[in-house]
Amino acid sequence: MDERALLELGREVAAEQDAALEERDDLRAVRARLLRRRARRWHVGRWVAAATLAAAAAGALISWGTRPAPPIGFEVAGEPGREGAWMAADETPRELRFSDGSRVELAPGAGLRVSALGPEGARLDLQRGSARVEVRHRSEDTRWAVHAGPFEVRVVGTAFDVSWDGERFALALEEGRVRISGPTLNERVVDAGETVRVALSERRVEIVQAEPAPAEPRTANARGAEPEPAPRVEERTDAERAEAPRPTPRRRARIDWRRLAREGRHADALEVADWDRVLATGGPEDLVLLGNAARLGGAPARARAALTALRMRHPGTPQAAEAAFLLGRLALGAGRAADAAAWFERAVAESPDGPQRMVAAGRRIEAYERAGNEIAARRAARSYLARHPEGPHAAEARRLVAETTPLAAPTRPARSAGRQGPERLAPAPLAPPSLPE
């Protein structure tokens, strides 16, 4: 091989080597670019994953924070209570302590139902007697409601005394502010120190304002003047007092018994009232007032006499419907639950739009339950929910409706042959009232 051929071969080999080196450099560059791109994707993916985890954690926190709070609870004498429970105080007061710091004390003879429990507060149904209510204001969401017959007291945070006897409502506010509503009252805000009294049968509302603090006794004015003389008291001799006219006993009884009954002095009202005259000639307002005074004064026989006379002499009046309700309460208190249910049926039928219709419908459920008539109790519960879905007896009514266990048909006494009308539960025919001796 000549020299020229060798040189040509050397140039070709060098060219091949240079191409291989360039290709190697290109491969290294490509590899570096791929590695950089992969690192960048991993870096971005890591931040995306971290952001996703953070968002999930924040969502979990928000979900946990917005989860509805559990309802408050309460206990009586260390034992936990339940929603819909009936609480009564017999001869001694009874205290309910709630988990939010609120408390309710029932006076002897009082009874209420804890109708509902929620995160913001409770709803209570005072069915008889007096109760001391102290609601602790925890936040702007605090919401309590106290039902007393047809009246409602909406509470945020306060302390007050409330009473209800089936015809009269009273509320004395010690501190805070409440909003009350009910028949003859509409809706009103009550401030601390005010007292509200309502007599349904008389359509009378009495609002007593807070009394101002007594002024300091003034002994001298700013200029050192002598103190003002005390008012002169007229002195009368024994002879002058003896000559003064005095009201006759009949006139005193005709006036005073009503005032005493309205003031809650029931026993005194019964002592001075002219029973024979009132039962024979009294109007519906007087008879329901006298019957209620006898019922609250511990004279149930006299109460039945007055209320029965009212229904016989003044049928179709609002007071006659109220008398049916009160006779139902008397029967229930005496343990005659079947008679009580029948009286409550009459009260509901005779006052479809009256102020005590809701209360009578609720007590009808209770009376049927006590009488053991579960079918009638459920029927009354369904009727109550259709008319008063948020009423004070709604929780108890829903419990009865939810019970679907089939019940055996009640046994009925044998009937004589022949076609007869449907069997109806009603009190015995009303006999003329027996006057007390």
Description of the structure:
Helix 4 crosses helix 6 (284-296). The chain is an alpha+beta fold. The chain has a 15-stranded mixed sheet that branches. A hairpin with a 4-residue loop joins strand 4 and strand 5 (103-106). The protein is 44% helix and 19% strand. It contains twelve helices and 15 strands. The model is unreliable at 217-254, 407-411 and 413-437 (pLDDT under 50).
Number of helices: 12
CATH top level class name of one domain: Mainly Alpha
Please report which band the strand proportion falls in: under 5%, 5-15%, 15-25%, 25-35%, 35-45% or over 45%: 15-25%
Q: What's the story with the biggest beta sheet?
A: 15 strands, mixed
Which stretches are poorly predicted, pLDDT < 50 over at least 5 residues? Answer: 217-254, 407-411, 413-437
Cα-based radius of gyration, to the nearest Å: 41 Å
Judging by the overall fold, what is the CATH architecture of one domain?
Answer: Alpha Horseshoe
How many beta-strand segments?
15
Task: Briefly note the structural class of the backbone.
Answer: alpha+beta
Oligomeric grouping of the chains: single chain
Name the helix and strand elements from N-terminus to C-terminus, one letter apiece.
Answer: HEEEEEEEEEEEEEEEHHHHHHHHHHH
Mean pLDDT: 75
CATH topology of one domain: Serine Threonine Protein Phosphatase 5, Tetratricopeptide repeat
Helix content: 40-55%
Give the CA-based shape.
elongated
What is the terminal-to-terminal distance? 163 Å
CATH homologous superfamily descriptor of one domain:
Tetratricopeptide repeat domain
